[in-house]
Amino acid sequence: MKNPLLRAIFVFFTLCSLQVNAQKIHKQTTSCNPLNLNYRFQLNSPSRREAADPVVVLFKGKYFLFASKSGGYWVSNNLISWSFVTTTDLPLEDYAPAAVVMNDAVYFMALDRRIYKSTDPLTGKWQIVKENFPFTPNDPCLFLDDNGRLYLYHGLSNIKPIYGLELNKETFEPIGSQAELVISNTKDYGWERPSDYNDYTGRRKPWVEGAWMTKHNDKYYLQYAVPGTEYKSYADGLYVGDSPLGPFKVADNNPFSYKPEGFICGAGHSTTFQDKWGNYWHMGTMTISVKDHFERRLGLFPAFFDKDGTFYTSTIFGDFPHAVPQKRMKGPEDYQLSGMLLSYKKPVEVSSTLADHQKENVTNEEIRKYWSAETGNKGEWILVDLQKQSKVNAVQINYFDEATTILGRTDSIYYQYLLEYSSDKKSWKILSDKRTSKTDAPHDYIELQNPVSARYIRLTNYHVPDGKFALSGLRIFGKGNGKVAQPVSSFTAIRDTADARNVTLKWQKSANAIGYNIRYGTAPDKLYLNYQVLGSDSITIHSLNSLLKYYFTIEAFNENGITKTIKVIETQNK
Fold it and tell me: What's this model's pTM, rounded to 2 decimal places?
């Protein structure tokens, strides 16, 4: 090619092509809750998506994820990217399925009183191995002990307990009678009280449900969900015993899995499993509960045993991006936060606004509030001003199903958009071009191979499956160019003498913080619980065990990083 101009043009377009191809083959290494799955629209009105009550099994090097009323199940090689498997062989319209790996096969159970088996679940082919189980187990959990004995845990009630019994693993018939294992005790256990913030004072009892069993070093860790799936406080409690059917003693570090604040809340009715490297993971149910109280999503959190056998789930920054380790983790320090939140309460511009769904809802870190354009037409857009030039390394696009009428799954359920960035709001470059995508990605998470420097992020709609172009969050992550938040001062923790399930914490606001993490626990070196606070200088936590002493510390964070925690303090009486 002799013409220098033509040669330059050729090189330019070749480099552009290489850049586009590199973006396409970029291997994602991070994940952000809620998980970006093709959650199914339910089969009845109102039109809304749902997946909940997960169970994950590792089988032949792949992770299989089953969830309530999903019309299929998911499979993954790495806990990051998931593909969907359809089948007509399983009762996938039931709530709370159970699955266990046994005899070189996956066994499945739901509410139809049958037990199914597959030696190759990738194909979607299953066979019935037991036609009529003796009773209908609500929220079943199948647990295979390392001695080869099989157990069933079940229970879903606000008046009855969680039950456990042994099964013959050949016939699946019960062996002996079932044992009563866990029943609620709201008098002492604050995490069991209904409402978003565990502050209910009436007589209504919590739902005790979603049993799960984990064995570690000859101890049995029985998990259960309370107080109700529609609450932000939806959590898993924990009991510990020396045998699979008890007796069990309540663990000190309760609730075991708890995320009452942040963009999306809830960490209850979960599955606890080990990955290929032996790391423990806890996948739980997260709540939206706007269009229906069963409008739910799934979240993935790491879980750990400390040197004393204390079992806990880490939910700190539980809806921020994290690198998902593909190796054995030594502890929480190996589960690295990969980006700070840049978009919190930043100014927003939009193409149009539907009444009562303001644009500010896109950056307020509350999935239950959303912005909607007036239409779902191509060309509707939204722009976030980060106010400062920042390093952007990930974006999460959380769609809301405004005015949809979809029921079930169809080929037309996909999103198309153009995501761009700019430093001056005049010259724009592409972050992600999905104008021809046919992927159903309601919580699309874009991890950039190379961070970009940007002040403005713009999302332009090209296609939504139905209804309006609406978002509950356009969340932008990376690193700001300013100073890390100042450490907190004047931190106090006052226990309520009239109700020791409650503690009120106050502090002096850090000058440049956007939020705070309260870390607490029942020993100074076991601060495994976390409560995130945005834009405030006080909080009352209502989820304590009234019989135990607690210790607290606090850290501040902003878009530039996290301060170190301050000195641990013990709760004081009024």
Answer: 0.94
